[in-house]
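Inputs:
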Amino acid sequence: MPTATSRFAAFLLAFIALKTETACSEDSLDFFEGQIRPLLAQHCYECHGPDSGEGEGDLRLDSLQGMLTGGRSGPAIVRGNAESSLLMLVLRHDPAVTAMPPQAKLRPQELKDLSSWIQAGAAWPQQDAALRSTQKLSDKFEISEEDRLFWAFQPVQRPDLPNVRDLAWIRSPLDHFVLTKLETQGLRPAPATDHTTLLRRATIDLHGLLPSPAEAGEAAQDESPDAFERQLDRLLASPRYGERWGRHWLDVARYADSNGMDDNMAYADAWRYRDYVIAAFNEDKPYAAFVREQIAGDLLETEHQTSWHNQHDGKVATGFLMLGPKMLAEDDPVKQQMDIIDDQIDTVGRSFLGLSLGCARCHDHKFDPISIDDYYALAGIFKSTRIMLSYRVDSKWNSRVLGNFDDERHLEELEKQFDHWDRRLILGDFVGKEKEKQHVSEQRSAALAAYAAIPKLMAVEDDEITDLEIFLRGNHLTRGQRVGRNVPQIIRGTSPPQFSQENSGRLAMADWLTSPEHPLTARVMANRIWHHHFGNGIVRTVDNFGRLGDRPDHPALLDWLAVTFSLNDPTFPPDSAMAWSVKRMHRKIMNSATYRMGSHFQADAFSIDPENRLLWRHTRRRMEAEVIRDSLLQVGELLDTSIGGPAFEDMVFAIFSSAKLKDERWINSLRRSVYLPVLRSGVFDEFQVFDFPDPAVVNGRRATTTIASQALLMMNSELMERTSHSMAARIMNFSSLDHERLDFAARITSGRSLDSQTQQEFLDYHRRLLGEVTPISEAAAWQSICRILLSSNNFIYVE
Amino acid sequence: MLFMFGGPSHIDTFDPKPILNRHHGRPLPFNGPRVLSFPERHGDLVGSPFRFQQHGECGAWASELFPHVSHVIDELCILKSMHCSNSRHGGAVLEWHTGSDTFVRPSMGSWLTYGLGSENDNLPGYITICQALSQGGANNYSSAFLPATYQGTPIGNDNIAAKDATIPFVGRKTQLAQQRLELDMLAKLDRKSLLTRGPDSELAARIASFELAFRMQTETPQVQDLGGETMATQRLYGLDENVTEDFGRQCLMARRFSERGVRFVQCNSNGWDHHDDLEINLTKMCRSVDQPIAGLITDLKQRGLLEETLVIWGGEFGRTPVAENADGRDHNPHGFTMWMAGGGVKPGFTYGATDDYGYYAVENKVHFHDLHATILHLLGMEHTKLTYRYAGRDFRLTDVAGNVIHDLLA
């Protein structure tokens, strides 16, 4: 981060450079007086002249100094370089900048004159001498004391356990933090929930599925004190766990199997990243390693290869950086690349740090102490990382082979071949040359087929190493000073990462992110874990720990969780194998009394704390889209639990057409939802209506809306038709007695039996259907009952 | 909104360029844009093969491609100086629909329904008929970070004929009588469990949502059923002819939805991207929409609805005055035409101009942001104040730009 002094030094250099080129001839001054000054006066001075005060946008064009200093968008001219001068872009109405004058464009001759004048050094009578070192510096960015003291930037410290009165309630140290706040408010925690509800909650939390009748039966009967702990062991050991928690991370990683945006190309190899994430949760890969791999796995490879479950994990993990939505048809290559880099910065910022770093692309962050220098220091790291093969329209993204070095070279060769034929096909003029066109087209198909046949993955690698200049107002046509690659100053820490010309610096960044002293990494992830167990994070804005995010409801508890997670505390037994274990966090949290509270309503608590920020009860949650679909398939005994694999076949470099996006084979598949393709701008209606997040951006906290189209899905969808039909067969097979069938149906959907009055109402309903709706079969009548139970709040809410 | 997806040529429809015609075959006398997708495909100036004429009392120009619209030209407020920031379909289509060609943002229709609320509880507030799923697809009508209630509800897509297009999940699989009994039983069950678990506003809202869905399921097909319209009305929209039937149906549905309080309806005509064979293709596309559009305006007018309904016509950009390939025109975001009618705009009014060749907007330029600001203004909202806080920032449809064009207001 350049200090004010270094900025001043940069300015002095520029000033000295200026002084050397001030020779103005008589002719050039005549030209100025004859052509340029009248033109400026006529077109510009109304808003940027002597009577305009500071000038619109703080820009005055009635002096050379005004032009060189520029306004809010940076210097208006670069002496001797008309092409790099903002003024010329603006006057030419380049779409990348604000067009001036706003209402009418200058005549071509006027533009030509101005351009020549700037090119010749912008001679302005008696003005060079008047240039002073008082030249306006851009608004200086400074980190204030208040910024430094902001809670999220403080080191994580192990808090003391607060005193509580009702020690009998405590099951885990974390309960102290919750109970003390409740006691201060004169509130009591809700009574513990029963075994059946607890098991349903835990199974949905950890698997995104319902407990089977056998599992529920066992739990209801097991009265031993460690019964629930053993259930947790069972749940955490199942591969269903990674499918559930992997999906949570995929929300954060804005995972998708297609590009979206303009050209919706298939990300045919994205699934390998999805499977990597699922496996990482199942293996309980330490979170620090998980983070490091996603940022710099390709650079870690040699060091870790032997310990990895899958030798390509490192490369696969960097898919995280690759998966963003891209404007593939952007004509301007620099803009295309900077937009891709912006996605990476924004994603890394929100996912790991809970900071909206993307805001600093155009200006210093308005609310958080993140400067535009910080942004371009990070951007340099990603600029030095290869994402695309080039930034021309419809270029291809970088791939790595699942093989050795020779395979890698072969892939590169095929990439070149394919690109060659692809370009020829797109750009060639084949009028009257049908034969040649066919030849080119066949060559292209052959190269594509050979390319597609190689197993490969979307992964980054280091590119040419470079630092970036600041792009003023985020515009790559107006550049400021160059900044060295680095991480944001406010969280750089005591041992900041070192960046060299040897590599992009991703590894240094990854090490810095996962250093136990980092104030945000552990807090942000511990908060995400908590969020998925309680429906709200301790910081409710799980992706924003900045000034405009929420403050933690239980700051000490958050720190206790963060320290417990990263084990950055000498008072804990030094057992590094336990550090950053997500499964260990589940056990800590789920074995607490806090987790086991019921969701009962309490009028007094509700009147004090309607949002349940104090955690006086367990928040009732609606199932997420995938949980709804998977559970429906599960109760219909239709769910296919096979693991992993491609989201689709034969789509290498193919664009999703409307018909393809609506291909019903996918949504009608019986596999778990996490394995269905996630198509940007084509999310399945079944997921969309239940608040599946937009897969283009980081989203760690899904919305929960209640809209009519959800009800329509329950009433009329093929999914409901199929599962209720199959469930009806299942319950009819279970028993020949109506009341037993009904009881079984109620238990497999909601975990509990109906009360006797309701049961009677359903049996009456069953008879009435058979009598009133003609013709209706016995099976169809049971299907109707199944549909009601599956549509009910008892099914869709997690108590 | 009548959206012409692909980018209709302004210099062949509403923006005549006699100098361009005179200089046909000569090179462009000034520099083209800094960035072009395929500069090698660009040739010399090509005049319009279509005849232009002044129409109506206002004397606005339109080419022979829009004979029916020419009859209602006194209702139009024509903007000849539109421009946007992106020369590719994806970017420009997203910029038109959401204000951003770079990021996923809420669509204009979502902002409008967010700002205006709903007038009819039985219908969605924002409907788009047969919209393309390519080039941004659902992002063009998504609510992004606004609550899902403001999401555009698609009726079909560009792959489905308007007569077969429906709202997702609206088709019943059980008999109506059975479904009614089922929903009553469901409500009974849910109300009972609400007694033991509640009070809980979410549980209560979900019970109500099934009743709303039931009504929506009944009402939407009724609105889409055009059989009740007189033959005269159906003919007015061109429903009796194959070539105009599809877009005519969309326009007539739009009137019916709009009458019932749907705040924003978009009709989509897909296929305006004429890189080749412009003369034939443009003629075909114009013919498919001309009568339906004129029918809609005439119908709204005679029902007294035009003054409270804003009609907007246009695509994501216009086309170049220079040839692309042998007989086409390339994308041109630097100057093109859109028009509005009704809803508080000056009728029979033309605003702004492109240069002598129709390449760049030069006079009274109107960016998408400006038109967005103006549209919000016409609907009673101040574009700088219609904001939504997300990820720590207040977002707007117009981001940090946009000026209301007061000259367009009646």
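Strands of chain A lie at 385-386, 399-401, 456-458, 461-462, 468-471, 479-483, 621-622, 797-798. Flag for discussion at group meeting.
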